[in-house]
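Our preliminary data section would be incomplete without showing what the modeling component actually yields. Below, a chain of 259 amino acids is followed by its predicted structure, encoded as tokens that our downstream tools consume directly.
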Amino acid sequence: MSSKIHKIDLAWVVPSEIKAFCTTRVGGFSKPPFDGLNLGLNSGDDPIDVLQNRSLLRSILPADPCWLKQIHGFTVSTPVTRNAFIGGPFEADASVTNIPNEVLAILTADCMPVLFASKNGDVIGAAHAGWRGLSGGVLENTIREMRTLSNGLMPQDIRVWMGPAIGPTAFEVGEDVLQAFSSYSEAILSEAFKPINGNPGKYLANLYLLAKDRLRSLGIEHIYGGDFCTVGDRENFYSYRRDKKTGRFASLIWISDKG
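Predicted structure:
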């Protein structure tokens, strides 16, 4: 057990008022198999331990994170919908804000967290992009809501960071996942889905490549991250595919009013 938080700072080019980082499993109070900084209340861990971990995280943030009830969907939480909703976490898989010190948070353990920031620092977003969300339009919806909050914002003025997710050598999928991306070009599909020899109908899928292709098709030019594998990095990351019973780490972003 440790009262320290080990975090990954983002290597991207954004204004100084944009603050963001990703937690790891190092530190915290959770016991095996959730050891240590598990932030997921619905993971099967002792809620007291998770709340202690969340309290530890809160100590280095300007406000309580806007936790979501993530359901592998495409809904985006906005300042308006959050203000209108009372009674627990908002059911959504992405969030946006233009309000300083409002902390957006995404919990993952193999799905891809994606963080967004405008080049002038006036609006941000965060998305939970597993294969269902990615194929269903969660990235497009997040960008659309960001543009609603920032008049005149163009896609080329948005910076994106793709956080720790299951990597292309570990993500075995079936035909159902391939078909979910049938609207993508044949060139991308052949690159992003590699057939597994001796296992018909099974592929190794590349979430990062699929996300990059979708972002670029939307006009996003500045894309960072995408070089992690939660399955392979047991020391730093939780992985549902690897362990089944496991915790969740968080990717967080906010606009600081202190620059």
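The chain has one domain: 2-165+222-255. The two ends are 33 Å apart (CA to CA). Preliminary results of this kind motivate Aim 1 of the renewal.
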